[in-house]
């Protein structure tokens, strides 16, 4: 029996119920496969756009701060009372609360050193990096950290370089 013959064999009331049901199913499919995913994607993109705008505003503020610091001048190797970058990194890390975590500092070039830390408190390490960059005209050229089992502790490798 063909579809047309089956349709014609139905009572008028049954045909109306099936037609309304088919329209409802079609609308649900359009909503479920089209409208809803697009709406969710639009919301996700709106959130990403807002985050990007916040990041952009932060970068603009940070850029102004960098320009202010550049115009004020940053401390360089000459401002360290004759200390080498290796001695500065060692002394500042030990003075910054990382003496137990600091395992090795080694030169990796004429103007850079690598420091290795084990079981270092991440917050203390981040504060030390911020201070050495801010106060001594040094930049971090490489940083990697692996979380250890204890909360808030990391094994980290940091490469510092003198800013010319």
Any overview of this molecule?
The protein is of the alpha+beta class and 164 residues long. 59% of the residues lie in helices and 23% in strands. The model is unreliable at 75-79 (pLDDT under 50). Strands 1-2-4-3 form a four-stranded antiparallel β-sheet, covered by helices on one side.
Relevant terms:
4 helices; 23% strand; elongated; alpha+beta; 4-stranded antiparallel sheet; 164 residues
In short:
With 164 residues, this protein is α+β, with helices and mostly antiparallel strands.
Structural class: alpha+beta
Integer-rounded radius of gyration: 32 Å
Distance between the termini: 88 Å
The SSE order reads HHHEEHEE
* Strand order, largest beta sheet: 1-2-4-3
Q: What profile does the largest beta sheet have?
A: 4 strands, antiparallel
Q: Low-confidence parts lasting 5 or more residues at pLDDT below 50? A: 75-79
Tally the helices: what do you get?
A: 4
The shape is elongated
The tally of strands reads 4
Average pLDDT figure: 86
Blueprint of the fold:
Layout: H1 3-8, H2 12-72, H3 85-98, E1 102-109, E2 112-121, H4 122-136, E3 138-147, E4 153-162
Antiparallel strand pairs: 1-2, 2-4, 3-4
């Amino acid at each position: 029996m063909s579809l047309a013959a089956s349709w014609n064999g139905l009572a008028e009331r049954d045909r109306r119920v099936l037609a309304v049901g088919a329209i409802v199913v079609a609308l649900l499919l359009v909503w479920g496969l089209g409208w809803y995913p697009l709406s969710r994607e639009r919301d996700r993109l709106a959130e990403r756009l807002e985050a990007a705008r916040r990041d952009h505003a932060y970068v603009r503020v940070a850029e102004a701060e960098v320009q202010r610091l550049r115009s004020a001048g940053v401390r360089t190797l000459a401002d360290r009372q004759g200390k080498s970058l290796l001695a500065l990194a060692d002394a500042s890390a030990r003075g910054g609360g990382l003496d137990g975590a600091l395992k090795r500092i080694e030169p990796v070039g004429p103007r850079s050193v690598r420091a290795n830390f084990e079981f270092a408190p991440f917050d203390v390490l981040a504060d030390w990096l911020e201070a050495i960059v801010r106060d001594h005209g040094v930049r971090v050229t490489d940083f990697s950290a692996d979380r250890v089992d204890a909360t808030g502790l990391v094994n980290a490798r940091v490469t510092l370089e003198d800013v010319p």
